[in-house]
Amino acid sequence: MKKVFVTGATGLLGANTVIKLLRYDYTVTALVRKKSSWMGEENENLRLIEGDLFSDISEYLQDVDAVIHIAAETSQDLLHYEDYKKTNYDAAVHLFAQAAAAGAEKFLFVSTANTLGYGSSAVWGSEKAPQIYPFTHSYYAQSKLETENYLLQQNRGTKVVIVNPTFMIGAYDRKPSSGKIIFWTWKKKLVFYPKGGKNFVHAEDAAEGIIKAVEKGKNGEKYLLANENLTYKEFFGKINTITGQAPLMIPIPDAGLAMLGMIGDFLRKLKIKTSLSSPNMKALRINNFYSNRKSSEELGVRYQSVDKAVEDAIRFFERKNNEVKVERQI
Known about the structure:
four-stranded mixed β-sheet, 13 strands, NAD(P)-bd_dom_sf, 10 helices, Rossmann fold, NAD(P)-dependent_oxidoreduct, Epimerase_deHydtase, Nucleoside-diphosphate-sugar epimerase, alpha/beta, aldehyde dehydrogenase (NAD+) activity
C-alpha cells in the first residue's frame, strides 16, 4: 500500500483526487485548514491534519512515497503578483524542501494548462508549446510557471512530475470554483456568451491523471490533463440540453469584451479588486484549445465526456442546495 501526502483536499480537484486514492487503497494524509471542510466520507486510510501551507509538516512526511501538491490561489481578482506568489510559489518551495528532506520519492505539482501555449481548432496546444499572451500577463499563470521552472531545477533527488489540467467540471465543487460557469446559463432565459472557447475536462479524470502521473509519470515531465475543445456556445448548449432549457443565446461582441477589459484595468489602478482585466477578457475571445495525447498515451488516462462532467456537477449542486434547504427548515 502506497502512502501519499496531499494538499488542497477540500477543493474540487483535491476532493476528487483523495476519493480516488482511497478507492485505489492508498494511505492518505491530507493537509486542510478545517477538518469540517472535507466533503468525502471518513476512511480508516485517511488522516486529516489542520494547518496551512507554511506549517511544519515534516513529521507527516516520514515514509511517504509521494507528495501531491494541489492547493493554490486561483482567484482572478487579486491586484498584485505577490498575492499569487506567496501561495503558489513560496508555499510550493517550502513544501518541496520538506518533502526532499524526508526522502519522498516523488513530488507531483498540479499546475495549469495556461503555463503552456494554447492552440486553435486546427492545431491544439501541447506540453512543448511555450506560454503566450494573454496568459503571459496573468499573475496566476505566471506564478504557476515560476513554480514549474523552480521545481524542474530541483529534481535530482526527489523526482518532480507536473500535471497541467485544463478547465475542470465535476462534483465536489464546494465554493463553487470553476463550476460557476454552469450558473452562467443554468436556469437563465437570456444568456450572453463570449465567442471564444476552451478545453474542458471532468474533474474525476484530472484526479485519475494525477494518480497515473504518480505511478507512471517520468521525472521532469509535464502532462496536460485535457479533453474536449469547445466554444462557449457549444459548452452552454450542452448545459441547456442536459437541463432541458432553451434560453435565448446572444454573442458578446469582441469589442464589448475589450472595453470591459479596459474598464477593469482602470479599476485595478484604483486598487479595486475585480476579475475584469484586458488579459482576462482576451482569454474569453480566443480558442484556448489543448491536446491530451501525451497523458493518454504515456499515462493511460481515459477521458469521460464533458456531458458526464456537467451532469455530475449539476447533481452535486442540486444535492447541496437541498441540504441547505433542509438545514434551514430544521
